[in-house]
Amino acid sequence: MELLPFFEWAETSFLGYIGKTYGGVYATFGQSLHLMALAVLGGSVLVADLRLLNVIMRDVPSEIVAEQAHKWFKVALAVILSSGVFMAAAVAQRMYHNDFFWAKMSALFVGIAFVFVIKRPLLKGSHADIHPMVIKLVAIASILVWFSVAATGRWIGFSG
Amino acid sequence: MTLKKELSTKEKVAAVVAGTIILSAIFYWSFQFVGMLEFLEMAYG
Amino acid sequence: MINEILVQFAEWLYATGGSRAIEESFYLYNWIETTHVLTIMICLGMLAFIDLRMLGYAMPTVSASKIADRLNIPMMIGFSIMFITGLLLFYAKPTYTNQSIWFRIKMVLLVVAFFNAIRFHRHMKASESTWTNEPRAPLNLRVSAALSLGLWAGVVTTGRLIAYDWYHCYRDLPGWLSAAAGCVAE
Is A131 in a helix, a strand, or coil? Predict the structure, then answer.
């Protein structure tokens, strides 16, 4: 499947036009909003996973922490995806030729699938019924995958 | 510590997927790191 | 007067070996900046959960002061990393950053956020036993929590905008903005 025409179209779309034309809108509703959502998304990942690793909040039931963090994870994900699509539309053709963009998209896809297909279903019930090693593996994988999404994302900007 | 002898299917799948993600992340970032070292070597000698 | 002194200080910093080394290196500046940006997840991520708990939007069944207390350590670790990397970023580009209106607004917001945090902490410690298990904190603490979220959103936004030179001294700026951005007569 050839994706380049889609990226070319994205840049000429209304969203792409706004982002290209108005630098202030791009910087605030694109970049700044993306960073604020990153804070909440990263925060919810860290709160939940560090709790599962027994690093923080050991005296709060991990079921509550994981469930509440997931609630805010979903909110942050919605904001970060919308602002991300807006930013990418404005520079779509450059993104198409950027290796880090594709690394980020792959990590993002893996991250979302991991959360909704593996992690959430696993952690839904009582955590005492789950093998502690499995919980720890899942927590480490979750931190790593979202760190990778964020870090490759930052590197898109450095690699023109 | 008493652990269950058998992992459920859900746990097995989770462990395998999580393990794969961890290994891929380690592989990806070491690859990036080596690439950076090579570049620095080229730049500074 | 103060702007002249700041410019002199920035030029002096700029001329130091370390400053030139960071800005001119291939990766160091980017690494410091990436660390600064990614640590937002630790510092502001924890802060967001504390504030959201006070507002009743996160973990309402868990004691509020317990959340604030437990997340305070990772938040402060994150803040320390952001503070150090932030100093290094300023050190690498002192002349540009000093005359960025966004940087200046960011510093003001940080100071206000600092006093807000102290006020929040003092009020929380004084009264926590009476409401800590309620789903929401008392009004004056909720105001502080909401203010904290707003101030930090401003810090993030102005921080991001430092990269843009729309209102830099070499632009045609109105007098008040020129003074606020720290521009001095050549």
Answer: coil
Candidates A19, A149, A17; CA nearest to A80 is A149
How many domains, in total, are found in chain C?
1
For the stretch A48-99, pLDDT in tens is 999 999 999 999 999 999 999 999 999 999 999 999 999 999 999 999 999 9
Give me the residue spans of the domains in chain A. Answer: 4-158
ipTM (interface pTM): 0.94
Q: Which domain holds residue C46?
A: 2-180
CA–CA distance, A3 with B21 (Å, rounded to integer): 26
- pTM value? 0.94
Q: Which residue has the tokens 């779509």?
A: A92
Q: Is C186 part of a structural domain of the chain?
A: no
In a domain, C166, yes or no: yes
Contact of C21 with chain B, judged by CB distance below 8 Å, is answered with: no
In chain C, residues with a C-beta closer than 8 Å to the C-beta of B36 are 27
Give the residue from C147, C134, C148, C144 showing the smallest Cα distance to C65: C134
pLDDT digits (tens, 9 = 90+) for A110-134: 999 999 999 999 999 999 999 999 9
Instruction: Find residues 2-41 of chain B whose CB sits inside 8 Å of chain A.
Output: 3-4, 7, 10-11, 13-15, 17-19, 21-22, 25, 28-29
Using an 8 Å CB-CB cutoff, list chain A residues near C66.
Answer: 59-60
